[in-house]
Backbone:
């Protein structure tokens, strides 16, 4: 009874943290629009940009996911199949983009495609669509096709790591005797047949999961759309930009309709996608045994020229935007003479806060404070939610366990902007004075990161042998002593990964922070980048300052990524 | 009597695993229970240890009823089939788990037990590098330091090869005898039973008419 009560409190706290602001936000929007959320979907076309936003959101998300798979699968195959020198470094470089904050990714791609950037100097002008891209644009007849190509490339860059993380461990740890046995059969004699009848069934759950998650992340893309395709609108970007006027009775009701209908549609699509991914992942978890990756790599041998070239190109692609971003922060364009000079002026101005409300040290302090608060809240809540689900599973209360599990995933079906708007509109109704509370952004950050903590800890808890607890009891340890001295140390690697990723996601979180903080005094680093980039570009240091701030953000995130990678176990595939 | 079990009943999902089981152990006695896999030997040990709930019956240790006490309050040691060592600690760290608090640690006692178990020089060794026999020795050292009033051995040697199994069986017997610790050892290997036990009981003697195979 005591244990049940103890478990219920954090779960109830977590669920109320997610549901209460959202329910109040929906209630407010229903009141303002006079229609229910599903009716609001049918009225999305009343907003001048509504229909275009829906079409573009779906089209770019599907295209991004397909392109990511087409480019990512060969990389995952080569990486998982062969023996590579310094595999750890290659893998880290290729998966780096996934933990890169979207604002940093946007700045990196801007550095790549801008006038004077690497692609521009190669005759590929995605920004102003002159030359080759201009010809292509007029040939296919799609306006801003250069911007769309840049956005798709950025989505591929960002999500390539997902394909590698989901698929490569499966390839590198599958016992070779399965393939050997299949090769002996008539159906396994040709490569095509092996791909179709052996590898596809083996890898399909991982490939489909990677496709769905890439779709989700592209569907909810905001920072990349905002800076790489500024004339295009995804639902997420439209809701973010217009959302400030939502929820006010009698004022711009079309905006409230847009937010209510857009959020409902987006929530339904994401929930459906997550349900599919969850189903495939459950199938994946009760499959065949695995071997150590070193064993298989030794078995298949060293890579050929094609594989080497492919991995080299992929690594350059993964690192180029980040390296160019750092260079762009110190390479200043002189507009009068159209020449470039090397200088740390932008860094100096960024640290002084000349173009922003806050300086880099102030914004960094805010970002770290929010990230630390998010770490504490999401790790505590995530741990207890995961423990509750695990305890229910142990007691054979499978349905209740699945119910809590699905509820814990709910924030994954909400984008940063939706959570930000939910907190904004919900808190306005509950307790408006909270807007003057410095720690408010911790709430949406923790809402977004807690599901990741649960997803990391739950499999680890399931894997802990009950013999450890029995041994502790035999040694006379109380439940509390067993928790502190046995369970926590056993979960330490996953806890460190969860803590580092919570902090990293919080540091880079843009959508919710942008909505809650854009006019406040507690700017975070991503909001600061956006502030600088919103200024007119006639001042030569505007872009370099944004690049400098993004570089600081990138360094902080990568530090956390390195910590997480040191503790990550490499099996099974997933986040 | 060291241990007295009277009319012990344990069931899983309505299926009787132990039915009116009686058992007595005299002071310092080592009893070996021989029986096929799945007959209920492990359930019996887990119930005595308090890791498994019983339906009814009395379990007394040194004439003191313990069946209503929590496992951690019974003062019983147990060696599992697979040595349970904590992967985040080295050999010494695992042995020191015998002490609930740091200020209770008696390093002289630790060194003496490690010496007896042939573990001197392996203090800082990672547990992943231990052989099966060494791992069980570390677990036994840890349990001996808790000064158990009864030791339960749940086929702890089953994963070892025949020669090593016999060697360690003799060592365990000698250690238990030198400390006068009563023990119940379950196994399905008659040769091992002969080596270690003062008295050998077949499962059918404990559970007449009971299922040999669950």
Residues:
């Amino acid at each position: 009874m005591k244990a049940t009560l103890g478990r219920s409190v954090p779960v109830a706290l977590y669920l109320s943290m997610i549901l209460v602001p959202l329910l109040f936000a929906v209630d407010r929007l229903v009141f303002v629009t006079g229609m229910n959320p599903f009716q609001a979907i049918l009225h999305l076309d009343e907003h001048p940009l509504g229909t275009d936003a829906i079409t573009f959101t779906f089209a770019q998300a599907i295209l991004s996911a397909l392109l990511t798979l087409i480019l990512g699968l060969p990389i995952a195959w080569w990486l998982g199949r062969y023996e590579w020198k310094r595999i750890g470094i290659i893998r880290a470089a290729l998966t780096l983009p996934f933990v890169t904050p979207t604002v940093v990714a946007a700045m990196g791609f801007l550095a790549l495609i801008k006038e004077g950037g690497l692609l521009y100097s190669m005759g590929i002008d995605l920004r102003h669509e002159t030359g080759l891209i201009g010809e292509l644009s007029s040939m296919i007849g799609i306006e801003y096709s250069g911007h769309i190509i840049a956005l798709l490339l950025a989505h591929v860059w960002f999500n390539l790591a997902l394909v590698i993380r989901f698929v490569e461990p499966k390839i590198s740890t599958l016992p070779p005797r399965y393939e050997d046995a299949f090769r002996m059969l008539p159906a396994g004699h040709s490569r095509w047949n092996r791909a179709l009848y052996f590898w596809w069934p083996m890898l399909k759950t991982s490939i489909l999961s990677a496709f769905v998650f890439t779709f989700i992340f592209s569907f909810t893309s905001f920072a990349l759309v905002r800076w790489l395709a500024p004339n295009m609108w995804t639902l997420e970007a439209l809701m973010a930009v217009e959302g400030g006027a939502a929820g006010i009775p009698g004022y711009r009701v079309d905006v409230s309709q847009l937010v209510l209908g857009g959020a409902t549609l987006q929530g339904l699509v994401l929930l459906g996608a997550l349900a599919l991914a969850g189903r495939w992942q459950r199938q994946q978890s009760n499959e065949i045994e695995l071997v150590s990756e070193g064993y298989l790599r030794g078995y298949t041998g060293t890579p050929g020229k094609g594989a080497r070239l492919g991995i080299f190109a992929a690594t350059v692609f993964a690192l180029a935007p980040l390296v160019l971003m750092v260079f762009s922060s110190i390479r200043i364009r002189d507009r009068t003479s159209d020449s470039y000079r090397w200088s740390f002026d932008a860094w100096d101005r960024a640290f002084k806060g000349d173009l922003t409300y806050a300086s880099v040290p102030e914004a960094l302090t805010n970002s770290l404070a929010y990230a630390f608060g998010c770490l504490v809240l999401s790790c505590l809540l995530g741990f207890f939610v995961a423990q509750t689900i695990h305890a229910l599973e142990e007691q054979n209360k499978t349905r209740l366990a699945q119910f809590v599990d699905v509820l814990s995933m709910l924030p994954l079906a909400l984008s940063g902007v939706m959570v930000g708007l939910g907190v904004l509109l919900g808190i306005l109704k509950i307790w408006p004075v909270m807007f003057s509370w410095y720690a408010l952004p911790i709430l949406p950050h923790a809402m977004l990161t807690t599901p990741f903590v649960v997803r990391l800890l739950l499999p680890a808890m399931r894997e802990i042998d009950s013999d450890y607890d029995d041994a502790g009891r035999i040694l006379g340890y109380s439940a509390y002593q067993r928790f502190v001295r046995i369970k926590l140390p056993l979960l330490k690697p996953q806890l460190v990964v969860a803590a580092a990723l919570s902090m990293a996601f919080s540091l880079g979180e843009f959508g919710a922070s942008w909505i809650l903080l854009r006019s406040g005094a507690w700017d975070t680093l991503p909001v600061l980048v956006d502030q600088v980039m919103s200024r007119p570009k006639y001042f030569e240091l505007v872009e370099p300052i944004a690049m400098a701030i993004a570089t600081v953000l990138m360094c902080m995130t990568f530090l956390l990524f390195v910590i997480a990678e040191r503790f990550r176990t490499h099996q099974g595939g997933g986040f | 009597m060291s241990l007295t079990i009277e009319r012990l009943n344990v069931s899983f999902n309505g299926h009787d695993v132990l039915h009116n089981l009686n058992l007595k152990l005299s002071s310092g006695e080592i009893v070996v229970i021989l029986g096929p896999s799945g007959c209920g030997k492990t359930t019996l040990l887990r119930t005595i240890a308090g890791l498994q709930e019983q339906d009814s019956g009395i379990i007394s240790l040194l004439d003191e009823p313990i069946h209503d006490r929590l496992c951690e309050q019974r003062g019983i040691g147990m060696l599992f089939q697979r040595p349970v060592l904590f992967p985040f600690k080295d050999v010494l760290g695992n042995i020191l788990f015998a002490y609930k608090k740091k200020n209770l640690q008696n390093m002289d006692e630790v060194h003496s037990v490690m010496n007896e178990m042939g573990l001197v020089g392996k203090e800082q060794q990672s547990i992943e590098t231990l052989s099966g026999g060494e791992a069980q020795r570390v677990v036994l050292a840890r349990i001996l330091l808790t000064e158990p009033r009864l030791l339960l051995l749940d086929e702890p040697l089953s994963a070892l090869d025949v020669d090593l199994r016999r060697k360690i069986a003799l060592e365990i017997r000698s250690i238990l005898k030198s400390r006068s610790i009563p023990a119940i050892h379950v196994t399905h290997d008659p040769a091992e039973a002969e080596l270690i036990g003062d008295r050998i009981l077949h499962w059918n003697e404990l559970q007449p008419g009971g299922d040999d195979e669950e």
Notes: Strands of chain B lie at 3-12, 15-25, 30-34, 56-61, 64-65, 76-79, 150-154, 183-187, 199-202. Chain B has a mean pLDDT of 89. The interface with chain A takes residues 49-51, 70-73, 75-78, 80, 82, 84, 86-88, 97-98, 100, 142-143, 146 of chain B (CB under 8 Å). Chain B has one domain: 3-206.
